[in-house]
Amino acid sequence: MAVTLKDVARLAGTDITSVSNTLRQSPRAAELRPETRERILEAARRLGYRRNAFAASMRTGENKTVAVISSYENLAININAHKVLSGILQEASELKYGIKIYPDRELPKRIDEILGEQIRHVICMSVEQPERLELALLCRMNQLRLAYVSEAAQDEFPAVNIDNYNIAGKVAHCLAEHGHRRIALLCPPHRYHYIVRRHDGFLAGLRECGVEPDFKLIQCVADDIMEKAAHDMFALPPAQRPTAVFAIGDGLALTLLHAAIRNGLRVPEDVSIFGFGNSEGSASAFVPLCTTEEKSMEVGKTALRLVLGMETGIAPDAEGNCLIPAELILRDSICAIHPETKSTSQRRQI
User: Domain residues for 117?
Assistant: First the structure.
């Protein structure tokens, strides 16, 4: 038979209202003497009392659960999404919130389920714009709090992401500081906001260093011709071939590494390569790749605090984006083109 508040009150020698306020951490509990609160908590522990969160939500209209909406397919294959979700789960545990995950298909049905469970807070991990727009409309109609992870803020709803623009600019500065001037860029078509930010941030960083981008070396191409683009780049005559390349994803950086080797080039002596994302493959590549750390767990933790209306320590920009600084990770895939400047293997905070 389940232990009730009345049982706890009897053992603690107090009234049911005091027990209820203490066990649900109500502000009214502060009016009780500390020894009374401790006596109540000890009685609850001895009796094995477990608060029924669902029943409490039905009484109060508040469920301490946050809905996370994502593509199940993305969660299955994307290690970065795993890390974001881990950050959400860790922070939820610290704050004593539950998490329930919903697919980003049939969004009106998902919102009906969320409302039926008295959930009022939603985090969207979807990156596809149609789903993001539809979810914003549904949350607005139903007065739900919503925060996005990745991409950008949508209407009045904020987003949490790494600062793709600035960290890509730091990559440009790093390569220029190593003496490179013929610097190429390899990225996919600009389907997503983060791709645009990395692309634009890198070019802006080059210009800040006095390096005018050579648009013959800026390749934004589809996946099915990415390998050919990398091969063609490294097949150029030495006077036209880039001495360094930035790939806006570690997968693309590995493609560049393979293409360089097939063209008889040494990395980093003949060409330096910089990736993005710090995937497991970047560290274990034939030549360990310089890359960036996206701090995905911190993104997840910040998103949970943001949607709950708590302090995040990050001031949003004018559009409502909370941008988390990323790190450069320097390994063996870049070196200076001047012999007197040595390559380093280190990690530094940006």
Answer: 60-157
